[in-house]
Amino acid sequence: MTVAGDVRLEGELVVLRPRVEDDLPLFARWHGDPDVRHWLHMSEMPDQSLEVERQRWSVVRNDPTRVSFVIETLDGVPIGNIGLIGIDVAHRRAELGIAIGEKDHWGRGYGTDAMRVILRFAFDTLNLRRLELITDIDNERGIRAYEKCGFVREGVLRAKRLRYGEPLDMLIMAVLSED
Ligand SMILES: CC(C)(COP(=O)(O)OP(=O)(O)OC[C@H]1O[C@@H](n2cnc3c(N)ncnc32)[C@H](O)[C@@H]1OP(=O)(O)O)[C@@H](O)C(=O)NCCC(=O)NCCS
After folding, report:
1. pTM over the 0.90 mark
2. Can you tell me the mean pLDDT for 158-169?
3. What is the tally of structural domains in the chain?
4. Mind giving me the DSSP string for 7-40?
């Protein structure tokens, strides 16, 4: 996680600041919420204890192909996280991941604003040209937010994951810098 450094990115509703070790209890609480986990490919994983978060963080923080930000409201309340995974400088592409962990903040424009901010960072600062993501086929709120940010549906990945043991189709979406 080298490029996030002390970068602070401002949007209209949110500020993105680099994720730090002190955020781990917050992540454990967000990822421990069944309503949040439902959408995060975590349904088949053990409960997200602080120890599990610590182990994941030790990988993430040393991975130069990732950037990871905490999403804060303009008055400084942390409500979720957003990041780029698998930054590939040769092909100038990466995968986007986002979760608003405070579910009372869903559907209020924060996710869209956070994505617009990180898209600018990815295209203008990191000089990437393609961002992609995969999401559950029934994640209508997410898909709507991604489309508002310019992501286009590219295809269905059949039975891509299990959710509570049941195969689930997922949608791959992407946005290009020229979009
Ligand atoms: C997906 C997520 C990041 C979107 O962020 P958000 O702040 O909730 O989304 P926004 O408010 O910016 O935009 C949501 C849009 O979907 C619409 N929407 C809300 N609930 C909806 C629903 N149940 N069905 C369809 N559309 C819905 C909203 O009206 C809004 O569209 P509009 O601006 O045209 O009215 C956030 O909801 C979240 O973190 N969810 C849980 C975890 C998750 O799904 N992560 C992504 C995994 S790929």
Report:
1. yes
2. 94
3. 1
4. --EE-SSEEEEE--GGGHHHHHHHHH-HHHHTTT
